[in-house]
Amino acid sequence: MKKKTNIRNLCGVLLIMFFIISCVPMKDLTYFNDINELKEPVVNPKIQKTILPFDKLYIKILSTDAQTSQIFNFSEEIRYSNAGNGILGYNVDEAGNINFPFAGKINVGSLTTSEAAVKIQTALGVYVTNPSVTVKFIDNQISLLGEVEHQGAFTFSQDKINVYEALALGGGLTRYGDRKNIILIRQEGDKIMHHNLNLSDSKIAGKKYYYILPNDVIIIEPLKSISSSYQNNTYTTILTSITTLIAVLLFTNVRF
After folding, report:
1. What's the CATH code, domain 26-47+139-222?
2. Contact 167, 144 (CB under 8 A)
3. pLDDT tens track for 201-242
4. pTM value?
5. Which of 28, 54, 167, 199 yields a CA-CA distance of 20 to 30 A from 61?
6. Helix, strand, or coil here: 165?
């Protein structure tokens, strides 16, 4: 009888360990833990992104002359057949220039798309009467790694998105993602910078790095209490197997 009691106690201990490992505190799984402390709206002006080296631009020239429009614009057939899943556009070189038909090199570095459109329009004024120019960013891409549902590189059409929109592209964080330890990797000039973001902070919208830019890399670290979801599954599987084995031995009256 004493041996059976000891076995029951062992089963109980293993079950408690199983639940301890399996459970994650609710505060580590929720966003905005301090939202009740937020008294005033958070202010963060959405400043328009400027054109940087290696950006890709979609440029469309409109004119009352159909032949002129055909010269400066890619046809729909060429645009999609040559670019695969993307849109054929103009690459900005390391000096901030684009190579435009007839006008040659036009420097659009550090300009907004609206400012670039005006500069291109001025450069084309010699060849086209009253042209209308549209400039947009295309093939914007970010990379999501770590504890997200779907890791990989994701594209978006906006000039920039906020951190929550970026994570949503990858299906959001897994159960074991550390919402207080999001690492943002961004190239600023000739330097690779690392920044830490805390998604549980209700005032994050007012932070400088709330908005994610093209070519950013976001890494979601696992919770410190769990090295990774895979290891956690291994531990729980082992504990479950041991507990089940002992229970079977106990209820089949196997003696030790």
Report:
1. 3.10.560.10
2. yes
3. 888 888 889 999 989 999 999 987 654 444 555 555 665 666
4. 0.66
5. 54
6. helix
